[in-house]
Model the fold of this input.
Amino acid sequence: VLLRYGAGAQDAGVPEAALAEARRWMALDVERELRDGLLRAYGDGYESVVRRIAEDGSETVVVELLRDGAPVAGQEQQTGHAAVATLLEAELGILPPYEELAGRALRCGDPGRDDWTEAASALWRRGDEETFLAASAWCADDNPLRQAFGADVLAGLGGAGADVAGGAGRFTAR
Done:
């Protein structure tokens, strides 16, 4: 949303820096990062509790340190960094490989999450034969999540590009 309204657009290097940070967070275990950061700041000897709150197409991870059952400190971080990276790549004209986008969707494991939907949307926008072939192959995979992602991509390709009579996409009949 921020990109659509020009956030950082006037500052050279801001989208690239944001992409690097999103990619960095994609590779991390958010819960572990938050816990480790709190323990570095407050030291050992605390019990930690974790809450995960589903919201806005992602999840907020909340880690709190407790002493005698009372909160001492906490940090929270929203997930969805793969979706952010995918959006920034589109903004910068970067086309990640098909398997990389599929991997982002499969890591989140939830078709309702932004990491999944943005990866599928990026492939829909390509709307080319290679995308169709990759998605078709995913549908034949043994992994049910990969099959579901392939089906989502094919469903989007079927309506994209409305270049045949009746408004159907060129892949619909296949």
